[in-house]
Amino acid sequence: MKASRKFILNADDLRKSSRQLSAISRQRIKRNEIYIILDNVLDTYNIGSIFRLADAVAAKKVYLCGQTETPPNHRIKKASINTTEWVEWEYAESPLEVIRNLQFTIYNLQIVAIEQSKKSIQYDKFDYKLPICLIVGNETTGVSKEVLQSRIVDGIVEIPMFGVNKSLNVMVSLGIVLYEVIKQTTA
Hints:
By secondary structure, the chain is of the alpha/beta class. The chain has helices spanning 11-16, 19-26, 44-56, 74-80, 95-105, 145-148, 170-185; strands at 32-39, 59-65, 89-92, 110-114, 121-122, 132-137, 155-158. It contains seven helices and seven strands, in the order ααβαβαβαβββαβα.
């Protein structure tokens, strides 16, 4: 199921868009059944960039959990180029609370954590299905142990690293996985 591209705004248009316009127009945009959970993501530029990414793939909703900063925030708005006004979002104390609520309301929801783990598989070897919920974690400590050790997660995926750096930026990792999800589910 491919999302509709009825409204296409450039960065300048997005920065100038009003909350009222985006609220009315947001309802008309066809969204993919993709939900994104930020589990204690602390960098406001990462948060803003994830909003921009969520808009790019027409994700249904972004959940900001734990210590993740929420809009309105100048740095989030700047990095998101105001897509915080176009992408539905909600704050919740715990990512497990969000997952349980989503599972209660969305049939057959696939839950996937993006994290380096002994249980992870390479991101492009996983069989993604919609509806899906992707979880990304803190820039230093990753997805919380409470999520990874729960039996709620259907899979853990990671991106192979070939240099001396151990990991990629949280937004970059999410972007790579999101586009693999789109590739596998909208073909």
